User: What shape does this take?
Amino acid sequence: ADIGRFASQDPAVYDGRLFPNEDGPGLIADPQSLNSYTYCRDNPLGYVDVGGEEATIIIREAREGESRDWGHVVIEVNGNVYEFYSKNPMKSIISSQEGIVQSYDGVDDFVDTYNTNTHDEQFIAIELDTTADQDAAIETYFAELSENTPDYSLFTSNCTTVVEGALEYAGIINSKDWNTTNNMISYSKRPVTPKGLQSRLIEISRYGSITIRGVETFKESDFDK
Assistant: This one.
């Protein structure tokens, strides 16, 4: 290759030969257009991934007073957010309850469901590299799940296990990926909590079976009009 793979077009030296792009490298007045290695203009939560190149795992972190393992997790793909939750959250702690599959028109629509709470909710977004076919498979998974929705169970069928199921169904990860080992920790089963899923995805990415584009945090108040 003529240049390193992390180089971006420099308008000062661009001559139409090194970067054969009919639209050119971008405009100095629009700095994000000059960088080939930003994604969704460095704002993946605000812009839609129309090309089918990313699925975003969104974790609502535990609130003050809650166990660090509590929280909630959803997945965003092609501009839609999908979640699975219990119709009776408090009762689901001691017994299985009716499960509900819900979709939202974007991250802002999902975050807006929290606007009646007294908390300024904290979220983590984990952006996974995907293909258009994998994104379509995730959407198919949730469409089928909504037709045959399982009961919600705190330890065996919850928001985390459903998101994991979507990732497996789409071929982004496989069951063997949950059995990872490093020099300090051996994992032999799927995580069942949002924070456990976050840790495991980062661990799996170190072995190359998935690619994490980035991890960012945001608050509910970031979406206030």
